[in-house]
Design goal:
7 strands, alpha+beta, 288 residues, globular, four-stranded antiparallel beta sheet, three-stranded antiparallel beta sheet
């Protein structure tokens, strides 16, 4: 687990269905206590079968993302500090990325280098992982490179050296964009965004019926968001100055917002309307 004060990373298991976790975090973002029966109904309406939902809840419980409280009026899903951190991590990074899309610049031209004397110590391992989750790149087991400052509440081990550099040499290059391409998997991230854009461009919503059923719209909205977060999880959210142009991440975020607005946002079914409203709230940083 990341050190205190650092965000929890979005899980990146290959081939994982992220819809259940996406829905859980949206539900808990709307309130730390959610009736289990309502959550199960929302899962069903968005295309997650009961067995999958129950199995995922058990797994989320083991990972400390949710607990179940039994009351006189039934079972309730209860959020945890870890689930709140994870939701905040995703939405916070999204807001930073969107701000960079809009401004076209975010970098002050300085590299931040954090060096750990005891790279194998527990405190150093936690801090190193936290910095990587914040968008840093491991230069080696001792040094992490970042393009932005880290939160003040993130505590670094006492035997840690910190430096700021206007120039960083990787191999034979000092060109910032080339340095970034060697430190971060930018090409892989870009490929993920292009795949997302190819799938969802042109208003294509694979499971939406011709009548524009609000239930199908809710399912598509959740799948759209989960699919986006699947590639966004790998994005270190670097400043625009360090990325190729046009950067497909910006295109993907624009497509996410416009595709979501194109879905049927009105429903007589209050549960479906609630799903759409929660996802709309999650996209708020993009719809500006």
């Amino acid at each position: 687990m990341a050190a205190e004060g650092a965000p929890a990373a979005w899980p990146d298991e290959p081939g994982a269905d992220r819809r259940p976790l996406t829905l859980l975090l949206l539900l808990l973002a709307g309130g730390d206590h959610v009736p289990a029966r309502r959550a199960a109904r929302l899962a069903a309406l968005t295309g997650i079968d009961a067995a999958t939902w129950d199995s995922c809840l058990e797994g989320f419980g083991r990972r400390g993302l949710v607990s179940v409280a039994t009351r006189a009026d039934g079972d309730w899903l209860v959020g945890t500090p870890e689930s709140r951190r994870m939701h905040g991590h995703v939405t916070g990074r999204f807001a930073v990325a969107r701000a960079g899309d809009m401004a076209g610049r975010q970098w002050d031209g300085r590299w931040r280098l954090v060096a750990f004397q005891d790279a194998n110590g527990a405190a150093a391992i936690d801090a190193r992982q936290s910095l990587i989750e914040l968008g840093g790149a491991a230069l080696n087991e001792h040094v992490v490179v970042l393009t932005r400052d880290w939160p003040a509440q993130l505590e670094l081990p006492e035997q840690t050296a910190i430096a700021w550099a206007d120039h960083l040499v990787i191999g034979s290059t000092t060109t910032p964009r080339e340095v970034a391409a060697r430190l971060w998997p930018i090409d892989d991230v870009a490929a993920g965004y292009r795949a997302f854009c190819d799938r969802w461009s042109g208003g294509g919503h694979p499971r939406r019926d011709a009548a524009g059923s609000p239930t199908f719209a809710a399912a598509d909205a959740l799948e759209l968001l989960a699919t986006f977060w699947q590639c966004f999880a790998r994005d270190p959210v670097l400043p625009p100055e360090l990325l190729s142009r046009p950067w497909p991440g910006r295109q993907a975020r624009n497509l996410l917002a416009t595709s979501f607005r194109g879905l049927n946002m009105h429903s007589s079914d209050r549960a479906v309307a609630a799903v759409l409203r929660m996802i709309s709230d999650a996209l708020e940083p993009a719809v500006v």
